[in-house]
Amino acid sequence: MSHQTLVNSWAIDSLKIRIPLNRVQILDEGIREMVVRVSARTGEVLEEKQNTKESRDEHGIKTVYSIEKRATQFDTIEYLIVLVNAKQLKERYFEGIKGQNVAQLHSYLIGLGVVHFSFKEFLKGECTDIDFRKDFTAKEDTMKEGIRFMHSNSKPHTEFDKGALKFWRKDNKGLQWNKRNTTKVRTAPFLKIYSKTLDFKTKSNVFALSHFESIPEDLWRFEFTIKNKDHLDSFKLGNTLSELISIPVEQIETMSIKSLKAVLNQNQRELKQMEGIPPKDVYEVNGLIWLLDEGHQWHTIKQRMLTSLTGSNRSKKLKRMQDLFEDYIRPMESYEKQAGVDDILNQIGYTF
Fold first, then answer.
1. Which end of the chain has fewer surrounding CB within 10 Å, N or C?
2. Which of 11-15, 285-289, 293-297 has the highest mean pLDDT?
3. Which long-range contacts (CB under 8 A, 24 or more apart) does 199-206 make?
């Protein structure tokens, strides 16, 4: 399935999964080796600790396994932690992690020869740091304007590690809100919009060249993180892999919009003066600009205003609205990229 088919489709991009170690067979004992730091001068053992991490990196796909001890009220339990990501799906990367491909994902993880656990245990595994993502296409100049608009409408934060960070470098372009390791999951969640095309050409170049026929152009990604069990609880969701891959797209969209509302102010545009518009058109153009300045998306305005019209009546009024937009509104500096920017904001979910 091509990436074009999957644009604007929500899916899981990555997560950490936790499986009780007594349900896991360790195949590579390197994960449990004792790491010893020795003095080069005397040969004395300075520090001794157990290595609890093992990784594999093949064709740009990095998989990290680690062992973690968690104390409960009565006992200390060891868990295997696996960082699972969509790159492990290889050529099915653009699907994201879903029910249709989770068996392939399990086969890949087992095939690396580090550990073995059953597919059943994989589905029962408890998850944290879940990244949901949606890809979309946009031209760079339109995207730059959309990011500028969102950055200017972001909620300010006084803490140095919170708030919006805009980046527009040769190798990395986008906008990020808050840090990935945020603990304020409701008021300062982690969200990011960035050029996936640039990512494939730089950071993920080895992976892209190994698994794609070509690198897609004008591709952007919007992602947000659901941090932990408490964060999932706030949406009345369970934390096992089987529960996560069963979340309806509408629910993911709801989570993304709630996350956006935590970092963005209501969509408002500055009202501009108009000149040179014939009196017969002024009241309609004024009405359309007022709706745009209230933050409504152009395609939504057309849908709502034409709701009860059908057939030729609808097509005539639609043409009238589009002509007014093209003749008078688009040429205004503040609305020059309105159609493209509105489309971007709508795809991201900034419609409130």
1. N
2. 11-15
3. 199/172, 201/171, 202/171, 202/172, 204/60, 204/87, 205/60, 206/59, 206/60
Tally the residues of the chain.
Answer: 352
Return the residue matching tokens 């919006």: 164
Q: Which secondary-structure segment (H or E) carries 189? A: none
- Which one, of 230, 187, 211, 177, lies nearest residue 348 by Cα? 177
Q: How confident is the model at residue 334 (pLDDT cuts 50, 70, 90)?
A: low
Residues 249-270: what's their mean pLDDT?
A: 87
Helix, strand, coil % over all residues of the chain, rounded to 5: 40, 25, 35
Q: Where are the domains of the chain?
A: 3-263, 279-348
pLDDT above 70 (res 38): no
Give all strands (DSSP E) within the chain, no chain letters: 11-20, 25-26, 34-38, 45-50, 53-58, 61-71, 76-85, 115-116, 126-137, 164-169, 172-177, 191-195, 219-226
Cα 10 to its chain centre, rounded Å, is: 9
Tell me the pTM. 0.77
Report whether pLDDT(210) > 80. yes
Residue 295 backbone phi and psi in degrees, to 5? 100, 5
Lookup: tokens for 191: 């969200």
